[in-house]
Amino acid sequence: MTTIQTNLQHIKSTLPDGVRLVAVSKFNPNSAIEEAYAMGQRLFGESHAQELVPKAQSLPKDIQWHFIGHLQTNKVKQVVPYVSCIESVDSDRLLFEIDKQAAKIGRVLDCLLQFHVAQEATKFGFSYDECVALLDSEVFGRLHNVRVCGVMGMASITDDQQQIRGEFRRLKQYFDTLKSTYFAQNDSFCELSMGMTHDYPLAVLEGATLVRVGSGIFGERMYQH
Ligand SMILES: *Cc1c(COP(=O)(O)O)cnc(C)c1O
After folding, report:
1. How far is CA 78 from CA 138, 201, 202, in A?
2. Which helix (H) or strand (E) holds 5?
3. What letters, b where the CB count within 10 A reaches 16 and e where it falls short, cover 167-193?
4. Which residues line ligand 1 (CB under 6 A)?
5. DSSP state at residue 16
6. pLDDT score at 122
7. What is the distance in A from the centroid of ligand 1 to the CA of 196?
8. What is the pLDDT of residues 31-82, one digit of tens each?
9. Domain 3-8+17-218: which topology?
10. What is the pLDDT of residue 123?
11. Does residue 205 surpass a pLDDT of 70?
12. Which residues are CB-contacts of 181 (< 8 A; sequence separation ≥ 6)?
């Protein structure tokens, strides 16, 4: 096995049933993705439109691509035909634009609502109040080409495990409250995407259903985004 394949096998062995792995392949070439694909991995994450589109066009069609980075509204049109889920919906405007572009090509696209729970000011995402305002709005009820499937977030970059766990716990609370308030009758609202290479074991303990692991599989990237 290659290093990528050994890493992938190890990480998968640490995940309990019911937790799916998004292999975050950003800044890695097709050849790296193909190594993971050969091991049966079908779910990959990308964070830039200009990188996702050529990869999706050239790699096997049974790969599911999750978009996980900050998405500008003017890039939505490029991304929508290729992804199975946009995990990083961080504004009303973005959700409306995804709905519009998905309608144009006759799709209903799965989306996760990204929450800001980290200490860093730079992380994108809704606050709980902003999200509730969106879900309560009349316009939300008129979106027919997006399907809100859950919640996504990132913890602070810190060595403080209690801090990280607390942030994951908060995301889980947001998920649970939204589920019971807005999506109780909706079986597709079931995903909690949290945890990356350095903190995914804590995310699993706090109830993640999707973990997004990049460098732990593919090695350290030259560029950190
Ligand atoms: C890059 C990235 C990841 C993966 O990060 P690693 O530390 O390499 O595992 C996960 N989620 C998001 C949103 C990312 O941008």
Report:
1. 27, 34, 34
2. helix 3-14
3. bbebbbebbeebbeebbeeeeebebbb
4. 24, 26, 47, 68-69, 154, 196-197, 212-216
5. P
6. 72
7. 6
8. 999 999 999 999 999 999 999 999 999 999 999 999 999 999 999 999 999 9
9. TIM Barrel (3.20.20)
10. 72
11. yes
12. none
CB 199 within 8 A of CB 164: yes
Model pLDDT, residue 222 = 65
Q: Where are the domains of the chain?
A: 3-8+17-218
Q: Which of 14, 21, 24, 113 to mutate to test the pocket of ligand 1 (most atoms within 8 A of CB)?
A: 24
CB atoms within 10 A of CB 131: 21
Q: Rounded to an integer, what distance in angstroms lies between the CA atom of residue 79 and that of residue 74? A: 10
Q: For the chain, what is the radius of gyration of the CA atoms? A: 17
Give the number of residues written for the chain.
225
Ligand 1 site-directed mutation target among 196, 198, 200, 220, most atoms within 8 Å of CB = 196
Residue type, 181: T
**Centre of ligand 1 from the C-alpha of residue 214, in Å:** 6
Placement of tokens 């890039």 in the chain: 75
